[in-house]
Design brief:
272 residues, mainly alpha, Helix Hairpins, 68% helix
């Protein structure tokens, strides 16, 4: 952490260690009339892409297992929150204090087994209780469907999982994993038929149904589809990088190698 002498000039009188207050003051200065032109041009909509990017960079830092990298990326995410709060503060809608107060109240309200007199048996019970309280909180809001609570901009696999869980709470679910596997076989057959029919729209629709069923399978088998696909992609990248390095050792380009040669290198990569 920077020493106090490294702190940027801001409002006087702040506690030496109050870095959150310092961040709020810096953001306000950047958004001032004579501040940073780029920061002044931003609004809630233009900042959406940066929040998403920072969130994914944070996930990379978590996977790296490097505390310094993790702290740095958490700071970038915190900056996005403070940025949005500053924009809202300028038109007297809310500020960081209001956001912090709201989440504190929500945490206390949704943990009555900690801050109240109710009890739960395990983590699953906590999740059920959380969802029940959350549903009660949204009871006054107009919703055409209970699925309206699933954010539309989530990554597709995560959105599918949350949608399935929401439907399952209403009793619309498979009894166990066996019919899900049968459904998987059915969707594969339908995709093959669509491919044979050479109908691009049908192929895309059946491929989507297959992916949706795989998410159902991951839910019943207890693994996270998003994380599982991320790990599979990481394995592919690792093996493909090995193939590139092996080809370079032979002073060859991948494009000039036969599929059989590439498959042989792929098998070597898997054996590692």
């Amino acid at each position: 952490m920077p020493e106090p002498s490294d702190r940027p000039a801001s409002a006087a009188g702040l506690p030496v260690n109050d870095w959150v207050a310092e961040l709020v003051q810096i953001m306000a200065r950047l958004r001032a009339v004579d501040g940073c032109p780029w920061d002044l041009e931003q609004d809630h909509t233009t900042l959406k892409r940066y929040l998403i990017e920072e969130a994914y960079e944070l996930i990379d830092a978590i996977d790296d297992g490097d505390d310094g990298h993790l702290a740095d990326e958490l700071g970038d995410v915190l900056l996005q929150i403070v940025f949005h709060c500053q924009i809202a503060r300028e038109t007297d809608r809310f500020d960081l204090q209001a956001v912090a107060r709201t989440i504190c109240q929500k945490l206390v309200r949704r943990h009555p087994h900690v801050f109240g007199d109710t009890s739960v048996d395990d983590a699953d019970g906590v999740v059920r209780q959380w969802e029940e309280i959350k549903a009660d909180e949204g009871a006054g809001r107009e919703r055409v469907s209970r699925l309206d609570g699933v954010p539309r901009h989530l990554p597709a696999l995560l959105q599918a999982e949350k949608t399935q869980k929401m439907a399952a709470r209403a009793g619309f679910d498979w009894p166990d994993v066996a019919p899900v596997i049968d459904k998987l076989d059915e969707e594969v057959a339908e995709l093959k038929a669509a491919i044979a029919g050479r109908d691009p729209e049908a192929i895309a629709a059946e491929a989507g149904d297959l992916l949706f069923t795989i998410v159902n399978l991951s839910r019943f088998c207890g693994f996270n589809g998003e994380e599982s696909l991320r790990q599979a992609t990481a394995r592919f990248r690792d093996r493909f990088t090995f193939i590139e390095a092996a080809a370079a050792q032979q002073d060859r380009q991948l494009e000039e190698m036969t599929l059989a040669e590439l498959d042989a290198l792929w098998d070597r990569a898997k054996e590692r």
